[in-house]
UniProtKB/TrEMBL annotation:
It catalyses: N(2)-formyl-N(1)-(5-phospho-beta-D-ribosyl)glycinamide + L-glutamine + ATP + H2O = 2-formamido-N(1)-(5-O-phospho-beta-D-ribosyl)acetamidine + L-glutamate + ADP + phosphate + H(+). It holds the Pfam family PurS. Gene3D superfamilies: Phosphoribosylformylglycinamidine synthase subunit PurS. Part of the FGAM synthase complex composed of 1 PurL, 1 PurQ and 2 PurS subunits. This is Phosphoribosylformylglycinamidine synthase subunit PurS. GO terms for molecular function: ATP binding; phosphoribosylformylglycinamidine synthase activity. It comes from Actinomyces gaoshouyii. One of its GO terms (cellular component) is cytoplasm. HAMAP family: PurS. InterPro entries: PurS, PurS-like_sf. Pathway: Purine metabolism; IMP biosynthesis via de novo pathway; 5-amino-1-(5-phospho-D-ribosyl)imidazole from N(2)-formyl-N(1)-(5-phospho-D-ribosyl)glycinamide: step 1/2. One of its GO terms (biological process) is 'de novo' IMP biosynthetic process.
Length: 84
């Protein structure tokens, strides 16, 4: 069974309150040196057999029409998940 990972992130000009909350919490737990945090979403799509170009094309269509809101989000990655 193959899997495809689709990653969706807020567009740079869109406010990210969850990322901002994480950024504010990092110094409180002693983690410094980070300058920004953006929180996105990750989807894993399973397919029968190995991932083909047709699967990737279908994942791209799903990403642009269902998995993301193109007004406020960018699809930043669509790739097969390497199996161990």
């Amino acid at each position: 069974m193959g899997r495809i990972v689709v990653e969706v992130m807020p567009k740079p000009e869109i406010l990210d309150p969850q990322g901002k909350a994480v950024m504010g919490s990092l110094p409180r737990i002693g983690l410094t040196g980070f300058t920004a945090v953006r929180q996105g979403r990750r989807f894993e799509l399973a397919v029968e057999g190995p991932v083909t170009q047709e699967h990737l094309d279908a994942a791209a269509q799903a990403a642009s029409t269902l998995l993301s809101n193109p007004i406020i989000e960018d699809v930043v990655s669509i790739c097969p998940l390497e199996e161990d």
